[in-house]
What does this fold into?
Amino acid sequence: MEVFLLNRREKFKEQLKKKSKFETIKSIIMSFTATVAAVVAVVVLVPTSPIAKIESVKAFTTDIVYQVNVTDQDGAITNDTLKVVLENQSEYYEVLLEPGLSAGSFSNLNPNTKYTLSVRYDKGFGLEKLATETIQTMEKDGAAFLGVSIIDPNYDYYIPYQIDIYYTNQSLTYQNLVLYIAQVPYYQVEDPIYEPYVIDLEGTSSITLDVMNENTRVLAYLEATTIKNELIVLDELEFQTPLSIYASFYVDQIRPDGFGVSFFSDYSSTTEISYEVIIKQNKQTIKTVTPPQFEEGTQHGESLWMIDGLRDETLYTLELYATYNDPITLQPTTRLIETLEETTISKFSYTIDIKDLIDIYEVTITLDDPGHNYQIANYTTYQPSEDYDMWLDSGQSPFNMIDNVKTATLIISKTYPSPYYIEIYVSSETDYRYYITIQTIFG
It folds into this structure.
């Protein structure tokens, strides 16, 4: 019996060891699975790196001039995370960049020296090289674009630009240098027309240029005449004006429960743009709505976009926003286009009595209107068709106040061939936006 008990104890101890090993392995596997899942989640959240292209890089005796273009479709670039670097084993220079086209120069360099130019992006855990090119300074005549910038951001129909140019001709290689510029707005289909600007001074010089704010593409090049009377293009530049958005909205109807809004947008570029309106009360967002797309040919208020569900006699702020991928940087962008402030009117109630008298309708409206927003009763008769609804007739009658009750009677002809319909509505004498349809009769 004692031997049997000892054997059972030994087996029990052996099972405990196996179970302990199993639990340890299970714990390791679960920990590894959780770690892998966490790593995968982090990888998914990392945005795609920006894309950089060195459009041109030119070397002179002690200067290197560059053009780089950076696009950032995932919006990864934040402040001070993008730079252009020029370096070799003993020298290091850097300049911060913005997404889009950038041009600039590094000056006072060593002559006849090799350098590496690179565009780098700080991911937050190290620098990533997006583009690299090696170049060597040398004694050389030539010209290059140093930069392009908007002088005044508060522009309207024309955008004031400054174009900076570098020109060196110490060996008298060239007789003259001419800058040619063409503006190509989005609607132009003809070949671009270039205008010449003579560059007289060596070193750094600038010209100012008013560019049409019409989603315009600007083409420029520097052309020199050599001592052998040969024409040679020394550098080229192409840039796009900031996206110009032609959109607006205005309140065309004011009701106790909201607003009827007219929305207009003119797609003057190939960029896809979405719009939304944010409604605020006391700076707090109440709701966000998206404008519908209306077909051409809509009539008599059918194109009004109703924003309802609001409180009566309340001041609201309406903000129109456009969202798009910037055509220059490809960054997701949201821009405030327009802001309106409007107040809903007070509530009202009514009863309507319609009598069918063979050739006419006799319509009596009784109105309880504490805010006295409506003074006139109206009707309009339309005949529907495939293209648009044709006006047939209209009329109105003022409300009369009898024992503190507003009453008006409309006499409406019904002698028109079917189909037709009659809209009955009340309106204001003082503000055309105070109106509301209370009944539609189909004949």
In short: The two ends are 108 Å apart (CA to CA).
